[in-house]
Design goal:
This protein is of the alpha+beta class. It has helices spanning 2-20, 121-128, 130-136, 144-152, 320-326, 401-405, 412-424, 430-439, and strands spanning 24-31, 42-45, 48-54, 60-64, 71-78, 85-91, 96-104, 169-172, 175-176, 200-203, 219-222, 232-239, 246-253, 261-272, 282-294, 299-307, 310-313, 334-337, 340-343, 346-350, 353-361, 367-375, 378-381. 30% of the residues are buried.
Length: 446
């Protein structure tokens, strides 16, 4: 009888660990291209869709406290706009399966063809400039054709569906950054921050996303949270011959530390006495810093600031006659003063931005994002005015040979004089400008 009871106790205690062991599946879903987390991704077992869950805001998921079928199974990872992944797994009693990080590839066939930001000639003249547009334009779409077209030819030449830039929305951490006075995004206000703006979510047309209801040309939310950057540092140098000659950049991201803090810093300098066009100086610095504190499993507070002061000389728009006489690098906006090049059209920008964001995941289906941003500073551009005085632009049509040749009869002497003056000089005469101002009877407006 004692032997029989002893055998029963051995069987009972040997079975107890089977009931006490925990089973589950966990992992993190990210964008394979940007490494940014993918929330609201559906996770379920094939042929067992009652065993399912959705990823959280940080892309993580866990399935537990359910009865798992043992043996070989297929875990399905599905999200709209991405290719579905079928992952083979082996479910064993008492084993937790940690799938680590799973990357999803974008399904380009699901991307609409309206994601290019279009800039008008007026916007280019007042703010960015043609060469800077090619170097600094941030593409919203990940479509292969639009990316190639924007880099090689500049998005200025493309107007998908006839939509202008003000028809698309650009957000940073959920706050709309389109300018109030014209409705379009002013990309140069965050120029040089490329490494800090790689995490972005794009929605097509008026389809809603986590931050807003979209725009006719789509909407892009740029995520600049300290906790969303991959841990590590980067130092880079680039040389160019377009709008600037050199670019130095350094950044460091801490990742989420054990105490729940995360921080990220970035500095970029772009410089050049001249770009591809003559007299186009470039002097720009870019600063970015973000710090975030995890207040709990579902709460975090992020403070972010960026400051992009710059000074840039503009380039003139030329006719074919001007190009034929002076070449493609010619710029009529500058002249020598005291032996140094002085550009008459200088764009200056000095507008820091600070931002405070609170993120609260109330439940799997409810999230609250509270944002506060403040932008201050000043910006402006210079140019020459002339009113009752002669037009000081050396490429003014009356100063070109074609004007004299178009007279009836053609004024050959004047044509030769205009040709000689333009080919041998063709730049602003700053001394003459000052002499004209002194002789002008009225307020000088140069």
């Amino acid at each position: 009888m004692k032997d029989y009871c002893f055998q029963i106790l051995i069987v009972f205690f040997s079975c107890c660990p089977l009931f006490g062991q925990e089973m589950g599946i966990s992992g993190k879903i990210v964008d394979a291209d940007t490494n940014s987390p993918l929330p609201n991704t559906e996770i379920f077992l094939q042929n067992h869709q009652n065993i399912q869950t959705m990823t959280k805001a940080d892309g993580t998921f866990i399935i537990k406290n359910v009865e798992f079928p043992l043996g070989e199974q297929i875990l399905v990872v599905s999200k709209e706009g991405y290719y579905t992944k079928n992952l083979p797994i082996v479910v064993e009693a008492g084993k937790i399966i940690d799938l680590k990080v799973i990357g999803l590839e974008i399904d380009f066939s699901d991307q609409a063809q309206i994601a290019t930001i279009v800039l008008s000639d007026m916007q280019l003249d007042k703010d960015i400039g043609g060469a800077d547009n090619i170097a600094g334009l941030l593409q919203a779409s990940k479509d292969v054709f639009l990316n190639a077209a924007a880099y090689d030819f500049s998005a200025t030449f493309f107007r998908p569906r006839g939509l202008e830039s003000e028809n698309g929305k650009v957000l940073i951490n959920g706050i709309i950054m389109n300018e109030l006075y014209d409705g379009g995004p002013e990309w140069s206000t965050w120029g040089g921050l490329n490494d800090a703006q790689r995490n972005r979510v794009f929605s097509m047309g008026l389809s809603p996303n986590e931050s807003n209801f979209g725009g006719l040309a789509g909407s892009t939310n740029i995520i600049m949270r300290a906790s969303k950057y991959r841990e590590g540092g980067k130092i880079s140098y680039a040389a160019a011959n377009r709008s600037y000659r050199g670019r130095v950049s350094a950044s460091y991201n801490s990742g989420v530390l054990k105490n729940g803090w995360a921080y990220s810093v970035l500095f970029t300098r772009r410089y050049g006495e001249e770009g591809f066009r003559d007299g186009t100086l470039y002097d720009a610095n870019s600063f970015f810093a973000a710090v975030e504190k995890q207040l709990g499993e579902n709460n975090s507070l992020n403070f972010m600031a960026y400051y992009v002061p710059y000074r840039r000389g503009k380039a003139s728009a030329n006719t074919q006659e001007v190009y034929d006489l002076k070449g493609t690098k010619y710029n009529s906006y500058w002249g020598y003063q005291g032996g140094e090049i002085r550009n008459s059209r200088i764009k200056r920008f000095n507008e820091p931005v600070v931002m405070l964001n609170h993120y609260w995941d109330i439940s799997e289906k409810t999230r609250l994002n509270t944002n506060l941003a403040y932008k201050f500073g000043e910006s402006g551009s210079s140019r020459l005015g002339y009113d009752d005085a002669p037009n000081p632009d050396p490429a003014y049509y009356r100063k070109l040979p074609s004007y004299a040749l178009a007279q009836d009869p053609p004024n050959l002497a004047l044509a030769y004089e205009n040709y000689s003056n333009f080919v041998n000089d063709g730049q602003i005469d700053w001394k003459q400008l000052y002499r004209t101002n002194l002789a002008f009877d009225g307020p000088a407006r140069y």
